[in-house]
Design goal:
The structure is a single chain. With 369 residues, the chain is an alpha/beta fold. It contains 13 helices and 11 strands. It has a 7-stranded mixed β-sheet with strand order 1-2-9-6-5-3-4, sandwiched between helices. A two-stranded antiparallel sheet has the order 7-8. A two-stranded antiparallel sheet has the order 10-11. α5 (132-138) runs parallel beside α6. The radius of gyration is 20 Å and the shape is globular. The two termini are 38 Å apart. The chain binds nicotinamide-adenine-dinucleotide (NAD).
Length: 369
């Protein structure tokens, strides 16, 4: 079954089409406004799996699309790859009415989105997410970005796509690790905004791929919440900051460990556990809700991170939400109810990384949960 929801942003509103066979709707969408040229941007892995299928889908609208392939992985969110894409499009003569079709996970979506938003000061963009993470989160809402050594996503734009097509069939080829990484972002939405989604995930016997959860239901629930948040606060000046739950620490780990060493969702899971610990002290999160949220997070496998929490401090200070060296964190006062905490010293956030019994003598701590 295919379902459609809408991100309501006035003239820039757009559909999110979710379900088995969703890619079949791309042609119909393009029939209303045929692009003058199309760049299909993908990574080498997704391109080899689904490039031909997408070319077939596009053939009615554009008989000769330009395929641009970047290496898979977080390191492709770079100025080098951005330049590569833009130069390829320029050489091929892609014009203002041209279209970028981003086929891949969050990496391709963020990178191709940035290319679409800056090339010729902005051309058309369609997101075709192929990872669970990109379906539940990154393909919706218009954030684009690349990383620099000083920090994650420090260069980017807000640029909404004109449509999102999430075909859940493509998830069949996803690695388990990437499945769980995407699930972490769905859990984030559940803990901060959606008690129904939380209870659904909590009650599932097996959260793994093929484990029986209705993944279209999870994607739709997450997209509905995100669409609502984006409608209310497109540029992240208020409520949208809630979606950063766990992310200040996550971005710190990703940058400090070296991009690609830890999956984004895995890092977010670590960050959410710290935020939950802090939420008990600072936000009155009850023991029951703390334990339930932690129990759900425990079901997302995360590799051991051998790093002293202090090593991520410089990255916390450079986080986009930081002000004058102090950091901001999103906390929760109950499952489904998020709070935006005022600025705090990075040390407070870092101290929550260790389990309570381990909070003293952090010199030898590594982060293991
Ligand atoms: N823009 C936003 O709002 C937003 C939100 C959350 C995360 N992000 C960004 O998203 C990125 C992470 O995205 P991701 O987890 O999708 O990573 P990713 O794009 O690197 O994909 C993970 C791996 O899965 C492979 N892959 C993708 N689809 C596949 C499929 N269907 N079958 C088999 N393999 C497939 C890719 O080639 C890659 O090796 C991070 O850079 C993060 O910062 C952005």
């Amino acid at each position: 079954m295919i379902e459609k929801i809408r991100v309501d942003l006035g003239e820039r509103s757009y559909p999110i089409v979710v379900g088995s066979g969703a890619w079949g709707r791309i042609k119909e969408h393009l029939e209303g406004r045929t692009p003058s040229g199309t760049a299909l941007v993908t990574d080498d892995r997704v391109g080899s799996l689904y490039g031909d299928t997408l070319l077939q889908v596009l053939s009615g609208a554009d008989p000769n699309p330009l395929v641009i392939t970047v290496p898979q992985g977080e390191n492709s969110k770079s100025f080098d790859q951005l330049e590569y894409i833009c130069r390829k499009m320029a050489k091929a003569g892609i014009e203002r009415e041209g279209l970028v079709l981003a086929l891949g996970g969050g990496v391709v979506g963020d990178l191709a989105g940035l290319a679409a938003s800056t090339y010729l000061r902005g051309i058309r963009l369609i997101q075709v997410p192929t990872t669970l993470l990109s379906m539940v989160d990154s393909s919706v809402g218009g954030k684009t970005g690349i990383n620099i050594p000083e920090g994650k996503n420090l260069v980017g734009t807000f640029f909404q796509p004109e449509a999102v097509f999430a075909d859940v069939e493509s998830l069949r080829t996803l690695d388990d690790r990437d499945w769980y990484s995407g699930l972490a972002e769905a859990v984030k939405i559940a803990i901060t905004l959606d008690t129904d989604l939380f209870e659904y995930l909590e009650s599932a016997r097996d959260l793994g791929p093929g484990g029986g959860i209705d993944i279209s239901r999870v994607i739709l629930a997450a997209c509905l919440r995100k669409a609502d948040v984006v409608r209310r606060d497109e540029k992240e000046e208020g409520i949208r900051r809630v979606l950063n739950f766990g992310h200040t620490i996550a971005h710190g780990f990703e940058a400090a460990l070296g991009y690609g060493e830890i999956r984004h969702g895995e890092a977010v899971a670590l960050g959410m556990k710290a935020a939950l610990r802090l939420s008990q002290d600072a936000c009155g999160l009850s023991r029951e809700h703390f334990e339930r949220a932690m129990a759900l997070l425990e079901r997302i496998p995360v590799p051991e991170v051998n790093m002293h929490p202090k090593e991520i401090e410089p990255f916390l200070k450079r986080d986009k939400k930081s002000v004058g060296g102090t950091v901001q964190a999103v906390l929760v006062s109950a499952i489904g109810k998020s709070e935006f905490l005022p600025l705090m010293e990075p040390d407070l956030l870092l101290s929550a990384l260790a389990e309570p019994g381990k909070r003293e003598g952090r010199e030898n701590d590594s982060v293991t949960d």
